[in-house]
Design a protein that fits this description.
Length: 106
């Protein structure tokens, strides 16, 4: 039995270090979501991914598989809740870009 992920739910990505707001919301409002078990998903710009999460001391670590402009993409990342209730984390592309992000509950 998988323990619940503490940051369950959908989070609106409001900022990423590498991309501006216009890119983030190009296809739909940028988000990251955790299903409360060990899965989730995210979307920003032309990137989508499914998450496989594992609980970490301060939040979750995850690996992901998905698409970047219709090309297969994968990577890893992490997310944690800050004291103000917002979410911060990092999304890394395998052999590619690494960007921090900030999000708030949707």
């Amino acid at each position: 039995m998988t323990k619940a992920i503490p940051l369950s739910g959908k989070w609106r990505i409001v900022e990423m270090a590498l991309w501006d707001k216009d890119f983030l919301d190009m296809m739909e409002p940028a988000y990251i979501a955790f299903d409360g078990r060990a899965g989730g998903e995210f979307a920003f710009g032309c990137v989508t991914g499914g998450l496989h999460c594992r609980k970490a001391p301060s939040g979750v670590d995850f690996t992901w598989e998905g698409n970047d402009e219709m090309d297969s993409a994968s990577g890893d990342g992490w997310a944690e809740i800050l004291k103000d209730g917002s979410l911060k984390g990092e999304i890394c592309f395998h052999n590619g870009d690494v960007s921090t992000f900030k999000a708030r509950r949707w």
